[in-house]
Design brief:
Beta-Lactamase, about 750 residues, 27 strands, about 45% helix
Length: about 750
């Protein structure tokens, strides 16, 4: 009987224990904070769903494992481990242990931990640890933000350029004032604190201030636009006084902002006077005035609204009651007939760049001169005048002069177009007309393409194209005369220069409609200009060198302490340089006379042997480092020639040989009869001349370069050719590189 009772009691106890476990597990499952149940070895017996969800783990990877093993060791925190190990043997607990840790699974978090020992239902034989985890990351962040916000407010309060007072909303007692208010009114901070607003010296009307305070308490806001105050130093000022009621930590406070508006008030008064002057000008000005707002659709101008117009607007346009209306209502169809009007107005409204233009409005049958500026983005002001009478007069005059101008231009172009081409460019259609000669000048096969701006631009040398195109665009934009020079792209590699002059031609409205012009080949002129510049530079240098030597020698000879021998040497140098200068001048004079067709040959019987020896002896005095040998057979006799010019030829040739021969080199001067001519030659031991260079030797200003840096103006051989040909002879050179050169010239034997 007792046994059966015991069995029944055991079953009842077991059932109650099972129900208690289920009840406990259900409670744990519904708790929002993560919970862990650990055994004495700190192995996890169980965890609630909040733990698995928070730390992104599963029961399979959690239960039965040591706490510091789960989650790749993210709970392996030494101090926490020590606290947990002491709970069972020492019967301890811990509360609000804060863990600031970077969890690999969920990132950086701040956790608050609480742990307790739990007795199981086996009379204390089995003991476990309940570890509760609370995530306080957001709470700490909120606290940090609140502290930062309070710091920012305090900094703003301390540095604000308005006076600020903080009042108790219930009593009106002043709790705080900022430094700016202290400086502005001259009262110390202590003089404010603890007092009512109406107890402060500059708020003298206590009754009015008490009433204002009650209104502020009721409505939570009060504002005075123009409140007169007086500082401690007697300075009177007008202030703007604004008060608001708000809560701090559950308590209502009042913030009063005090701003000195004395300067602003003076400015406002000046503005009122300015407005009166503006309205007087606006109403009485003779020009029309329209203040408008531009209407856009995706940055494209669609219409505009008249916001304000003056009396002259109606007088000049004949339009009435336009304010508040769109242009499309006032003048239907204007956008189609005058699209440029919308483009200009929109451009000014967007960019702010002022523009001025003239236009004809078909619907009003009137011409207007309009200046447009932008008062603010998206708006524009048009100031205009009716210029219809002026335009009619200009049109009449233009039509009467048009035929005369066209005839005059054609005549002028015909006179200037010899060996040139003419062109025409229609700006309205973009079409071009080229004369037959233009194709050759541009280096194009006749009619190989459609005449066009692009086809022409491609023929321009790339280096010149930007400058020329800029000149064309400027002329087309401003309606000015076109003047341009450029090089032509040629397949032969020969540089060719062209010049174009274009004249703008307006249509009946005065707008430039087309250009007519000519193109001239100026290659020869460009070459002459280049040679002229080079020649002037070289001649200046060559003339300056002997002059410098002469002046230096003379000034030195005039110095004290110079011996007669030294003076003689200095004067010899001066004479030599003077002789060199004389030869340069003689060469230039002969070349100039030849170009002017005034070169005259004065022939007389001349002994060539004596003439050659005289020239050679002078050259020997100038250059003692070369051996000059004369090889002339006896019995040549006298010949009819210009002795002075032949000496000049020999001087130039021998001087050339000296320049291009190495030190100690031989120079041979020879002469002999050949049939009906006398052949004279000068042979040097220099570097020789290539076949290509020989063709350029007798061209003006050509001088071959050497590694020795030989100087000269390349004039001597040209003068030799001119003088020889003036005698009826010819001159040439025979040479091979590295074997010296021989210059020959012949004179006829009359």
């Amino acid at each position: 009987m007792n046994k059966n009772n015991n069995n029944r009691n055991t079953k009842r106890t077991s059932l109650q224990l099972q129900e208690s476990i289920i009840y406990t597990e259900n409670i744990l499952a519904t708790i929002r904070e993560p919970l862990l149940v650990l055994n004495g070895n700190l192995r996890i017996i169980s965890a609630n769903q909040s733990f698995y969800k928070t730390f992104l783990v599963t029961p399979q990877n959690t239960e039965g494992k040591l706490i510091y093993e789960i989650g790749d060791g993210e709970w392996n925190i030494p101090k926490l481990k020590k606290l947990l190990e002491n709970i069972l043997p020492q019967n301890t607990k811990f509360d609000d242990y804060e863990v600031d840790h970077n969890f690999p699974s969920i990132g950086h978090r701040t956790m608050l931990l609480n742990a307790r020992r739990i007795h199981n239902g086996d009379k204390g034989k089995t003991q476990t640890i309940l570890l509760a985890i609370e995530d306080i990351t957001d709470r700490k962040e909120t606290k940090h933000r609140l502290a930062s916000s309070e710091l920012r407010y305090r900094r703003l309060f301390e540095t604000a350029q308005d006076g600020i007072m903080i009042l108790d909303a219930r009593t009106g007692e002043i709790k705080d004032v900022n430094p700016f208010l202290v400086r502005m009114m001259g009262y110390t901070k202590k003089a404010y604190l603890g007092k009512k607003l109406w107890e402060i010296g500059f708020f003298k009307d206590e009754k009015a201030n008490r009433r204002a305070f009650r209104i502020l308490q009721d409505k939570g806001y009060i504002r005075y636009e123009d409140l007169p105050l007086e500082a401690t130093n007697g300075k009177r000022m007008d202030v703007e006084f604004v008060s608001n009621v708000y809560q701090i930590d559950g308590e209502k406070v009042i913030q009063c902002n005090v701003r000195d508006i004395s300067d602003r008030k003076k400015t406002d008064e000046s503005l009122i006077q300015s407005e009166k002057l503006y309205h007087s000008l606006f109403d009485n000005m003779m020009d029309g005035y329209a203040y408008c707002k531009m209407l856009f659709n995706k940055d494209l101008p669609q219409d505009f609204v008249y916001l304000k117009v003056n009396k002259a607007f109606e007088t000049l346009t004949g339009l009435k009651d336009v304010e508040g209306k769109r242009l499309s209502e006032v003048i239907p169809g204007l956008k189609d007939t005058n699209p440029e009007l919308f483009e200009i107005y929109a451009r000014v409204a967007l960019t702010g760049k002022t523009e001025k233009f003239e236009t004809y409005l078909t619907q009003l049958d009137r011409w207007f001169s309009i200046s447009v500026y932008r008062p603010q983005k998206g708006f524009f002001v048009a100031v205009f005048d009716n210029i219809t009478d002026r335009k009619q007069a200009e049109k009449t005059l233009m039509e009467s002069e048009q035929r005369f101008r066209d005839s005059e231009q054609r005549l002028h172009l015909a006179q200037d177009s010899a060996n040139a081409g003419t062109w025409e460019w229609d700006l309205r259609t973009g079409k071009n007309y080229w004369s037959d000669e233009i194709w050759r000048l541009y280096g194009l096969a006749p009619y190989s393409c459609e005449p066009s701006y692009d086809a022409w631009a491609k023929t321009i040398h790339p280096d010149d194209r930007p400058i020329v195109e800029a000149a064309v665009q400027e002329a087309a934009t401003n309606g000015t005369r076109l003047n341009a020079e450029w090089r032509v792209n040629t397949t032969s590699g020969v540089e060719r220069w062209l010049m174009s002059v274009g004249q703008p031609v307006p249509d009946h409205t005065g707008k430039i409609a087309r250009f007519i012009g000519i193109v001239i080949d100026i290659s020869d002129r460009k070459k002459v200009e280049t040679l002229k510049d080079e020649f002037i530079g070289m001649v200046s240098h060559e003339l300056k060198t002997p002059v410098t030597v002469i002046m230096g020698a003379i000034y030195t000879a005039m110095s004290e302490g110079i011996s007669k021998k030294e003076i003689r040497e200095l004067l010899t140098d001066a004479v030599t340089s003077a002789d060199s200068l004389s030869r340069i001048v003689d060469n230039l004079l002969d070349l100039s006379r030849n170009q002017a067709k005034r070169l005259q040959i004065n022939q007389e019987p001349t002994d060539i042997d004596v003439l050659v020896h005289n020239v050679v002896n002078k050259q020997k005095d100038r250059s003692g480092i070369h051996q000059i040998i004369v090889d002339i057979p006896s019995g040549l006799g006298l010949i009819e020639t210009d002795r002075v010019r032949i000496e000049r030829i020999l001087h130039n040739l021998i001087d050339n040989a000296i320049k291009y021969s190495p030190e100690g080199g031989d120079i041979i001067v020879f002469a002999r009869r050949e049939n009906k001519h006398l052949l004279i030659g000068v042979k040097d031991s220099g570097i020789g001349i290539s076949v290509e260079d020989q063709a350029r030797l007798f061209t003006p200003f050509e001088r071959l370069q050497t590694t020795d840096g030989v100087r000269g103006i390349g004039l001597g051989l040209v003068v030799c050719r001119v003088l020889v040909e003036a005698h009826g002879g010819r001159i040439w050179v025979e040479s091979q590189p590295g074997q010296g050169s021989t210059f020959f010239f012949t004179l006829p034997l009359h």
